[in-house]
Amino acid sequence: MTTFRYRREPSAAFGSVLRPVASVMLSTASATIEVALYIDSGADMTLIPFRLGRSLGFRQRPSERIHELSGISGAGVPYVLRRVRLRLGDAAFPIRVAWALIEEVPLLLGRVDIFARFHILFDERAHLITFTPVHL
Asked: How far is CA 44 from CA 11, 40, 72, 110, in A?
């Protein structure tokens, strides 16, 4: 079981808000980086910005197909699909990430390849998120 505390952040509408954030390790053959990702049960894919992907050793190939991700705002974000190794607490496993080809995106922990591995409890009252591994 791994537990994270919500993080207090400024909000234009509310002054400040508490947001569910997980500190994880992302690894490739080139690098390992610790990052804080917003835990987003509404996001299909884990999303990382351009510069973080470059730090992990990602390079865009000229013939590679560029996909477009649309969020609730409907604005499109160009991305390419990559694989990384995610470490969340004691659990480590490969996941797919959407590597945004722009910088202006939030770091999101999405459902694909992750949520089915855990029972996830968002405890709004205690401001905690608990990931309990399930056996697949």
From this structure: 24, 8, 12, 5
Q: How far apart are CA 30 and CA 66, in angstroms?
A: 23
> Tokens at residue 40, please?
């987003």
How far apart (Å, rounded) are the C-alpha atoms in residues 134 and 117?
6
Torsion, Cα 48 46 105 59, to 10 degrees, reads 30
Instruction: List pLDDT tens digits, range 8-52.
Output: 999 999 999 999 999 999 999 999 999 999 999 999 999 999 999
CA distance 42 to 33: 24
Spatial distance between the Cα atoms of 44 and 125, rounded to a whole number of angstroms = 26
What gap in Å lies between CA 46 and CA 62, rounded to an integer? 23
> Length of the chain in residues, anyone?
136
What predicted TM-score, i.e. pTM, was given to this entire model?
A: 0.90
